[in-house]
Amino acid sequence: VQLQASGGGLVQPGGSLTLSCATSKFILESYAIGWFRQAPGKEREAVSCINNRDGSTYYEDPVRGRFAISRDVAKSALYLHMNSLEPEDTAVYYCETSTHRGLGTQVTVSS
Questions:
Q1: How many Å apart are CA 78 and CA 33, to the nearest integer?
Q2: Which terminus in the chain has less CB density within 10 A, N or C?
């Protein structure tokens, strides 16, 4: 199962970043899929997910209104558009289904 996150980097507070997850059309059409993150010394936490059947989305409170999840089935890709980034958003971000997790991408928010 391919779930490869990319697009992380260093960004200043208040900045924006878009993460991408390369996966497959089968995965996007068959499973709910989402983004999770893990900061140093902290538990892994959910960020956002998207339903495979109707495309409905869900966001955890810390990111609601700032992040947007989307998918492009034709491109076999999942995205996380992150705006108004805060130092607390610093973490390794992973794209995941209920049964699979891919390699993550580091996001660092710092001045």
A1: 8
A2: C
Residues 6+ apart with CB under 8 A from 35: 19, 21, 46, 47, 48, 49, 69, 78, 80, 93, 94, 95, 96
φ, ψ of residue 37 to 5 degrees: the values are -145, 155
Residues 6+ apart with CB under 8 A from 72: 79
Give the integer Cα–Cα distance in Å for 45 and 110: 20
pLDDT for res 77? 97
Q: What is the mean pLDDT of residues 97-106?
A: 92
Judging by DSSP bridges, how do beta strands 45-50 and 105-109 pair with one another? unpaired
> Which residues fall within 8 angstroms of residue 83, CB to CB, at 6 or more apart?
16, 66, 67, 68
Check if the beta carbon of residue 93 is closer than 8 Å to that of residue 104: yes
pLDDT tens digits, one per residue of 45-77: 999 999 999 999 999 999 999 999 999 999 999
